[in-house]
Structure to design on (353 residues):
């Protein structure tokens, strides 16, 4: 199998040592750029923390803002690129006729490279569309369980030595069903906004819990993906579901989950977003959560997690930050997929000779 002459890794990615070694074996020269140092990253974090609008993923803060001139300088003599955050301008493609391969360590590439132009110049572009499917789906169910069972509050009560069960049992509180906020998933109506790979996997897992699952998607499915999952119009999905979980592409309409849709949620409903923060009217969501009418598990935000706001809301609500996909298995699979795609490209080139 013929090797690449020079493979340039333009920004910081997470690969295991054996995966790096496999890359080295597939190229005569491997050049890695590690991005900004820790001091520069912290300075940028401080600067950006007060900005309302920001990049889709804040791990981009570790990436240098490269000019076209600098990208061209780094790619001198390179016939392969691996990147995650760095956009590849049209000019770079036109001025580097030796380029044969661009591999993205991510699932979103349409806004990072002109796919049509790359094809015109005979450059193969690979990316990893499905690395987080199971991890995100499992985290979504974990969020449902944690919020519906008030797991964080229960853990805090246990630490303090104060338990709602004992207060009811000993008569220190008048027993009533409202004093038992913990709820099961079985029998609850789950509405999925988006029904791609992750949404379908969530539906499969939810069905094991005995939930009644419906979905909304711009493209109505034929019903074969997941048994007994029904399509509903978006407004109906929000008004009838006990739990609503967002699984749209980050390329979907910004703030498609509007103030009006959030207002349709039932009292005591649970709202979950492990997809992309820009899809939700975040201000309207905070207002709903402040009112305590609904509760939520949120893993993604428009910018950095607003710590003052979520600090007030933490308890009945649970907040993490881009934890959905981040597991040992997903990170390993992501790296293995990147390496295997490059290997397949080189094998295909051999067959064409």
């Amino acid at each position: 199998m013929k090797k690449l002459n020079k493979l340039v890794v333009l920004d910081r990615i997470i690969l295991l040592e054996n995966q790096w070694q496999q890359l080295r074996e597939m190229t005569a020269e491997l050049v890695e750029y590690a991005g900004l140092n820790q001091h520069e990253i912290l300075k940028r974090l401080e600067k950006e923390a007060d900005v309302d609008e920001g990049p889709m993923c804040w791990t981009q803060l570790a990436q240098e803002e490269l000019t076209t001139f600098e990208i061209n300088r780094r790619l001198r003599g390179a016939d392969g690129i691996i990147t995650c955050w760095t956009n590849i301008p049209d000019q770079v493609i036109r001025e580097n006729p030796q380029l044969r391969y661009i591999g993205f360590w991510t699932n979103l590439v349409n806004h990072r490279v002109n796919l049509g132009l790359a094809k015109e110049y005979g450059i193969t572009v690979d990316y990893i569309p499905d690395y987080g499917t199971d991890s995100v789906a499992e985290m979504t169910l974990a969020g449902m369980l944690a919020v519906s069972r008030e797991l964080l509050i229960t853990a805090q009560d246990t630490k303090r030595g104060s338990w709602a069960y004992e207060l009811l049992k000993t008569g220190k509180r008048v027993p009533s069903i409202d004093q038992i906020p913990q709820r099961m998933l079985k029998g609850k109506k789950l509405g999925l906004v988006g029904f791609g790979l992750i949404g379908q996997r969530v539906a499969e897992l939810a069905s094991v819990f005995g939930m009644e699952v419906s979905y909304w998607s711009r493209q109505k499915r034929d019903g074969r993906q997941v048994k007994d999952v029904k399509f509903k119009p978006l407004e109906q999905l929000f008004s009838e579901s006990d739990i609503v979980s967002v699984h749209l592409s980050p390329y979907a309409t910004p703030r498609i989950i509007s103030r009006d849709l959030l207002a349709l949620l039932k009292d005591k409903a649970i709202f979950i977003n492990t997809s992309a923060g820009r899809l939700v009217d975040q201000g309207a969501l905070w207002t709903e959560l402040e009112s305590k009418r609904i509760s939520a598990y949120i893993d993604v935000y428009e910018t950095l997690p607003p710590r003052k706001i979520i600090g007030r809301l933490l308890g009945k609500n649970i907040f993490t930050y881009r934890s959905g996909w981040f597991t040992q298995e997903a990170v390993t699979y992501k790296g293995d997929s990147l390496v295997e795609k490059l290997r397949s490209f080189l094998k295909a080139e051999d067959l064409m000779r």
Notes: The mean pLDDT is 88. The radius of gyration is 24 Å. Residues 133-319 form a domain with the Rossmann fold fold (CATH 3.40.50.720). The chain is about 40% helix and 10% strand.
